[in-house]
Write a structure and sequence with these properties.
Elements lengths: L27 E4 L1 E4 L6 E3 L14 H10 L6 H21 L9 H9 L4 H15 L2 E3 L3 H10 L3 E6 L7 H7 L8 E8 H4 L7 H12 L7 E5 L2 H10 L3 E5 L22 E3 L9 E3 L3
Parallel strand pairs: 1-10, 2-5, 2-7, 5-6, 7-8, 8-9
Antiparallel strand pairs: 3-4
Helix pairs in contact: 2-3, 3-4
Length: 285
């Protein structure tokens, strides 16, 4: 893991931007497991989601300084164009293999773009680039919510579009790794590991299968995310209960123009992570 000191200057406080949504839904009985999205749900995301420089790219002056730091002799615009092209090319390769919603492994993409072989250096660069393009900070009440879940004996997991650096957020901001926060290693599904991204149902099916191995039925699982298409739609497809996190205008995605979401309703709407515990009627294992 990259040491916090090496990226400390990027870890600046952010506040969620309130939305017009209001909390709704009745407490859900017999929940045994809560699965989370990360960007825009557990962490404020400056770009609204994990950024691969699709729309929100670093300012050229900032990127120029980063390139100079790593002795990369390319113009910022060229780097951004090559990054975009490399991602699109890899997506196309994966689509030809039958993956409808492909995901890249960003360190391999940067290795290609920067034409470098030092993986540690490439990963450090990738982290700094991402934190410039997509500043992040914990949502209010994140630590307290996770502590309460852990104390109540809830099984915790993650299904998120993510990259290799995503788990570092918990170490950097909460001073703990995922097991220490109560997350089950068997229930951690990051898109880059499987080269498939939400809204693919595949990650949710994998989670449902692992939960069945633990004798937990989908009806006793709650999934929370900020995107009606990427989160609520596939979670409901596998039978999970759902909570829409509507606490930050940057990341709330209602997708009203998508036919898959037009008649879709989450079981809960929460605007603060602290509301979650009061809406779960815990079932002892």
């Amino acid at each position: 893991m990259l040491h916090k000191k090496s990226i400390q200057k990027y870890l600046r406080p952010l506040k969620p931007i309130p939305t017009v949504s209001l909390p709704s839904g009745e407490p859900i009985p017999d929940i045994q497991c809560v699965l989370f999205d990360i960007y825009g749900t557990l962490f404020i995301s400056g770009s609204g989601d994990i950024s691969l420089a699709k729309q929100n790219s670093p300012q050229h002056a900032t990127l120029r300084a980063l390139l100079a730091k790593y002795e990369i002799h390319k113009a910022p615009r060229l780097v951004l164009d090559e990054l975009h092209d490399a991602i699109q090319a890899r997506h196309e390769q994966l689509r030809r293999r039958g993956i409808e919603h492909p995901e890249v492994k960003i360190d391999r993409i940067w290795q290609q773009v920067l034409q470098a072989d030092d993986q540690c250096r490439i990963r450090q660069f990738a982290v700094e680039f991402e934190l410039i393009a997509n500043p992040v900070y914990p949502m209010p009440n994140l630590a307290d919510m996770l502590t309460t879940c852990r104390r109540q004996g809830l099984i915790l997991g993650i299904i998120s579009n993510a990259q290799f650096y995503t788990p570092y957020l918990f170490n950097w901001f909460l001073d703990s790794d995922l097991p220490g926060l109560g997350f089950d290693a068997d229930l951690t599904f990051y898109s880059y590991r499987f080269e498939t991204a939400k809204p693919s149902i595949a990650l949710f099916e994998m989670a449902a299968e692992k939960l069945m191995d633990k004798e937990i039925q989908p009806a006793f699982v709650l999934y929370i995310g900020n995107d009606m298409l990427n989160d609520i739609y596939p979670a409901q497809k596998v039978g999970f209960k759902t909570a829409l996190f509507a606490g930050d205008q940057r990341s709330l995605r209602l997708r009203a123009d998508d036919s898959r979401c037009r008649d879709l309703n989450p079981d809960l709407v929460v605007t603060d992570l602290g509301q979650l515990i009061g809406l779960i009627a815990f079932k002892g294992l």
